[in-house]
Amino acid sequence: VCLGNQAVVDMAATIDAVVADPRVTALGLHIEGIRDPVRFATTVRAARAANKPVVALRAGHSDAAQALTLTHTASLTGAAAVAGAFLERQGVVEVTSITAFLETLKLIHARAIAGHRGGRRGLVSMSCSGGEASLVADTAARAGLELPAFSPEVAAAIRSTVHPLVTISNPFDYHTFDWGNRPRLTATMAAAMAGSQDTTALILDFPRTELGPAPGWDDALDALADAARLTGRPAAVISTLPEGLPEDRAFSLIAQGIAPLQGLEDALTALAVRERLDEPLRPLAEAIPRAPASGLAGLISEAEAKRALSPHGLMCPRGVIVETEAEAVDAVARLGRTVFKVTGLAHKTEHQGVILNVTTPDAARAAFARLSTLSPALLVEDMVEDGVAELILGVARDPVFGLHMVIGAGGILAELIEDRALLLPPFSADDVRHALAGLKIARLIGGYRGRPMGKIDAIIDAALAVQSFALAQSDRLLELDINPLIVTPTRAVAVDALIRLETAP
User: Fold this and answer.
1) Nearest to 407 by CA among 387, 385, 427
2) How far apart are CA 312 and CA 308, in angstroms?
3) pLDDT tens-digit series, residues 368-412
4) CA 158, CA 150: separation in Å to the nearest integer?
5) Is 155 a residue whose pLDDT tops 50?
6) DSSP alpha helix (H) spans, 277-360
7) For residues 158 and 395, what is the distance between their CA atoms, to the nearest angstrom?
8) For 155, which of 237, 308, 373, 452 is 20 to 30 Å away at the CA?
C-alpha cells in the first residue's frame, strides 16, 4: 500500500485496516516519517496482539536521507537513534536492506502457514559441504544467531542415520553419501530437527534450469518436507545466492509452510530478526508533550540543578556557593578535599574553570583569586576521589518522539568514543541494567584487569532519579546533562549538572 505523504490516509489507519484482513500474516513498513507516535504505537501493538509481527525498513539514518524525507513527505523523521529506540519499544524490528526486509516477511509468512509461533532460539544448519558449513557459522555470528550444539541424545540419533565418516556438529555437514536417497535423508533431517533449536535449515543451491533436471536436489527438498511433517518443527531452505532457488520450488515450499530463503546473509538476518520479534513488549512510552509552548530556554545554575535533582534520589557532592576569599577558606576547612568551579558556564573545563584538590587555606585563596575573574560566585564541593569510571546521563527532547535519556561513557570520553545507549521513559531498573551491559565502558565498571568494580545498582538508581525529575518536569524540560556521573565501588555521584527549562513567554 503506497501512502505518499500521508495527506489523506496515514500509516496507522492502514495498519488498522490490514490487521483486520485474515489473509495478512505480517506487516512490513517502509517508514519515512511518523506523524503521531502515540497512535502509531497503539496500532503496531494491536498488530502484535493479533500475532501479526511488524518489520520496518526506515529512512532517515543519514543527514541526506533526513533532508530528502522532509522534502518529499513534509514530515520530520526524528533523530535516527531515538526513532530506532521508539520502534524497538513498540516491538517493531528494523532491518537495513530491502532484501533482508523481504526475506524476513517471507519467513514470518511461511511460519504462519505452518502454524509455528516461535518461542525457541537458534538454528541448525544442514548442508553437504564443509565450506558451506563454515560460511554459515561465520554469517550466523555476524547476525547474532545462535548455533546450538546437539545434545548427546540428538547426536546419537543422527549418528544412527549417517555414514560413519560423517562428523556430527552444528553447522551439520551430512556429506553426499546419501545424496538422492530420500528415506535416508528424511531420517537424518528428522533426527537433526529434534534438537533445542527454533529452526532447521537446509542449505541448497539448485543448478540453472536450462542445465536439465535436478533430481538429487528435489530429493533433498522432499526429505526436508517429510522431516518437517514428521516432527512438526519449523524448517527453511536457504540458497546461498538469491538466484540459487528456482521460483517454482519456492512456491511449493511456502505452500508447505517451509520458508524459501534466498541469499545466505539475508536469510540468517531474517532468522535473527524473527527471534527478536518474540521478545515481550515493554510499557508504552509516556505521552510527553512533543514541544514546549514558547520554545524559550532558560539555563539554571549547576548548584540549582543539583538542588532540584537531589529530592528525586540523585546523589550529589556536598557543596556551597562562595563569593569572598574568607568564605572560600571556610568552605575548604569544613569540607576537606575540595574542587572549585566557576558558575554560569556550561563547559567549565574548556574555560579552565575548574581547580581540583584544594585542601589548604593558601590553596583556597589561590583558587578563589584565579577563578573569581571568570565568575563572581564559585561553587566549592567535596571532591570524589575513588572513581572507577565516568558516565553521562543526558535527557533531551526529540521534536517527534519527545523526551529520551542517553546513558554512556562520560567525561572527556563522551564525544570521543560515542559509547552510549538510549532509553525511552518509562524505563525500569532492568532496562538500565541491560543498557549498561551493552556499553564498552561496562568492562571498566566491572573491574577491568583487577581494578575495583563500580557499583552497578548505584548507576541504576541515578538513572531512575534523573527519569523521575524528567517526568515531573516533562512539560518544560528541554535538556538535562549529568556529566560526569562518577562511579565508585560504593556510589555514583553527579559531580556536574546542567538543566535547561522552558521559560515563560
Assistant:
1) 427
2) 8
3) 999 988 888 999 999 998 899 999 999 988 888 888 999 999 877
4) 9
5) yes
6) 302-309, 325-335
7) 55
8) 237
